[in-house]
Design brief:
It contains two helices and three strands. It is α+β, with helices and mostly antiparallel strands and about 140 residues long. The mean pLDDT is about 75.
Length: about 140
């Protein structure tokens, strides 16, 4: 009767060893898959960032592309709704983009004052940026007093 008990014990030990080997192989495969997913994310991020940086309509705007788990996140600011549409179109045109989280905002520049003189304490608006001479001094030669 000792032989069947030994055989059962050896079978259990062998089964446990096989199970551990399978678990380790699965963990290693998952790690390789995770590494390749991160590599793919970085490659996609670089392609999107390059496309955004080279888009003529977006020059002067810093749009940041970040990819995690295959999801593209875009952040930054543009000046017009048209530029916002351009950001989306450029990103969607990059091969591999499937999902986009869009956090780009339109921040319109403040209006430029029209017809106002120089700010108090500021410099004049002449060609050299200097203030006009005080009254009575520096008059033009042909000007009568």
């Amino acid at each position: 009767m000792k032989k069947p008990a030994v055989a059962v014990c050896l079978s259990i030990v062998l089964a446990c060893a096989c199970a551990e080997a399978l678990r380790a192989a699965g963990a290693q495969a998952a790690q390789k898959e995770s590494t390749s997913a991160r590599t793919a994310d970085r490659a996609l991020q670089a392609r999107v960032q390059s496309a955004l940086s080279s888009a003529a309509d977006l020059q002067g705007h810093e749009i940041v592309a970040e990819v995690r788990g295959g999801v593209l996140s875009l952040t930054g600011e543009v000046a017009t709704p048209s530029e916002l549409q351009t950001v989306g179109a450029v990103a969607r045109a990059v091969p591999g983009v499937k999902t986009i989280r869009f956090a780009v905002r339109v921040v319109e520049p403040p209006p430029t004052p029209v017809g106002r003189g120089p700010e108090p304490g500021g410099r004049g608006s002449g060609p050299s940026g200097s203030s006009p001479p005080p009254a009575g001094r520096g008059a033009a030669p042909n000007q009568q007093r």
